[in-house]
């Protein structure tokens, strides 16, 4: 059975990976993992150790605490509508061939998310 915290951490790993326009294979290779192992992290079927979480955070340019943002005690694991929208947006972003334009959009998204977080 998947623990809600593990599922949440996995969703956050997937979310930031997609926002960065990276595939599971890209990230797994850079971490020295199989893409299947990363997939298990993202679904919460395998727990992410503290050291691995730190490595993932460093690679994806976030603080380890990012993976716990938005988690509320006693929340049920359920399909997340945001994940589907995020996946579509990331797919569209990754189809942009101009690296400079893609980087600007990624920066804008991260800045807007930070402003939103600060305003909460």
Automatic annotation (TrEMBL):
Residues 13-67 form the HTH cro/C1-type domain. One of its GO terms (cellular component) is cytosol. It comes from Aliiroseovarius crassostreae. The keyword Transport does not apply. Signal peptide: none annotated. Keywords: DNA-binding. This is XRE family transcriptional regulator. GO terms for molecular function: DNA binding; DNA-binding transcription factor activity.
């Amino acid at each position: 059975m998947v623990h809600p915290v593990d599922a949440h951490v996995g969703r956050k790993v997937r979310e930031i990976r997609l926002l960065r326009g990276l595939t599971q294979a890209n990230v797994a290779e850079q971490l020295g993992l199989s893409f299947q192992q990363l997939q298990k992290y993202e679904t919460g079927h395998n727990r992410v150790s503290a050291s691995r979480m730190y490595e993932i955070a460093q690679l994806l340019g976030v603080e380890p605490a990012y993976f716990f943002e938005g988690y509320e005690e006693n929340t049920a694991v359920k399909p997340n509508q945001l994940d589907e929208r995020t996946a579509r947006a990331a797919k569209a972003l990754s189809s942009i061939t101009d690296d400079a334009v893609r980087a600007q959009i990624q920066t804008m998204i991260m800045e807007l998310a930070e402003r939103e977080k600060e305003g909460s």
